[in-house]
């Protein structure tokens, strides 16, 4: 079986070009940032798990937050370090190679908030253990924002069925392996249950329900007005049933109790 850190190492250099700077990727990330802005305050100490190439850490620091950003991939952390090297001294981000399963070893237990963006928790087999470890790192009342790949995505069904690939269309309805790594697609209800009793669910939102998944970018970027209209509608209705349950990613906002 492949080591997760090695698998993500291979993505590090190309990730921003393939996702961060794309039209759809940028829209999805902006939606997550909007919810971070609604929940986190300047001066807050924020823990970021699976930080990837540091795009979210840079934004959080730019909003006046003190950020500790971690990732299982040393290569991702290296890319983040280069990206964040030119931040002003008062926006410095602390970076560390760390897996979710190693969270207990992270120094400090007084974070005001936490972000895990774009599917890092889908690689974690034991959500209940991850939740317990996270609860010990956050202050009571702290907000954890989790962006997780959902199991039911109609966009994905239609996209791959139209291309004669039923296996790809319904791949999220079961556990699958990616680069030798088991990937899980828990429902909103299953994730919320795993994070009980340490956390209370405040809100669930959709990231990529009306807006198509990022892998459609090459084809659909030629229709910018359509994508803009879908993005506006999704932001307006993002917390309305059933959009969170049918999104490429769902965004949970949880309060540490």
- In the residues, how many domains can be counted? 1
Strand portion, in percent?
A: 15-25%
Q: How large, in whole angstroms, is the Cα Rg?
A: 17 Å
CATH topology: Rossmann fold
Q: What multimeric state do the chains show?
A: single chain
> Distance N terminus to C terminus?
37 Å
Structural class: alpha/beta
**Main β sheet profile:** 7 strands, mixed
Which stretches are poorly predicted, pLDDT < 50 over at least 5 residues? none
CATH arch. level architecture: 3-Layer(aba) Sandwich
Q: Number of helical segments?
A: 11
Q: CATH top level?
A: Alpha Beta
SSE ordering: HHHEHEHEEHEHHEEHEHHE
Shape: globular
Helical content stands at 25-40%
Mean pLDDT: 95
CATH fourth-tier homologous superfamily: Vaccinia Virus protein VP39
Number of strands: 9
Biggest sheet: strands side by side, in what order? Answer: 3-2-1-4-5-9-8
Characterize the structure shown.
- The protein has 257 residues and is of the alpha/beta class.
- It has a single domain, classed as Vaccinia Virus protein VP39 (Rossmann fold), CATH 3.40.50.
- Helices cover 38% and strands 22% of the residues.
- The chain is built from eleven helices and nine strands.
- The strands form two sheets. Strands 3-2-1-4-5-9-8 form a seven-stranded mixed beta sheet, sandwiched between helices.
- The protein is globular.
């Amino acid at each position: 079986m492949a080591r997760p850190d090695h698998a993500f190492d291979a993505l590090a250099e190309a990730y921003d070009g393939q996702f961060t700077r794309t039209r759809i990727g940028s829209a999805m990330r902006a939606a997550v940032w909007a919810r971070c802005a609604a929940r986190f305050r300047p001066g807050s100490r924020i823990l970021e798990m699976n930080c990837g190439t540091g795009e979210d850490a840079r934004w959080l620091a730019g909003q006046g937050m003190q950020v500790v950003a971690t990732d299982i991939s040393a290569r991702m952390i290296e890319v983040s370090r280069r990206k964040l090297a030119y931040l002003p001294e008062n926006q410095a981000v602390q970076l560390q190679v760390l897996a979710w399963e190693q969270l207990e070893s992270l120094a400090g237990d007084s974070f005001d908030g936490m972000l895990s963006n774009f599917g890092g928790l889908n690689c974690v087999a034991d959500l209940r253990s991850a939740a317990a470890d996270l609860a010990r790192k956050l202050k009571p009342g702290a907000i954890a924002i989790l962006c997780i790949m959902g199991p039911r995505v109609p966009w994905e069904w239609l996209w791959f069925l139209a291309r004669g690939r039923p296996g790809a269309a319904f791949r999220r309805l079961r556990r699958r392996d990616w680069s030798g790594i088991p990937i899980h697609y828990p429902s909103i209800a299953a994730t919320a249950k795993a994070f009980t009793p340490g956390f209370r669910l405040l809100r669930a939102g959709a990231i990529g329900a009306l807006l198509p998944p990022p892998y459609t970018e090459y084809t659909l970027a030629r229709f910018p007005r359509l994508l803009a209209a879908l993005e506006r509608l999704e932001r307006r209705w993002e917390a309305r049933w059933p959009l969170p349950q049918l999104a490429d990613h769902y965004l949970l906002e949880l309060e540490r109790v």
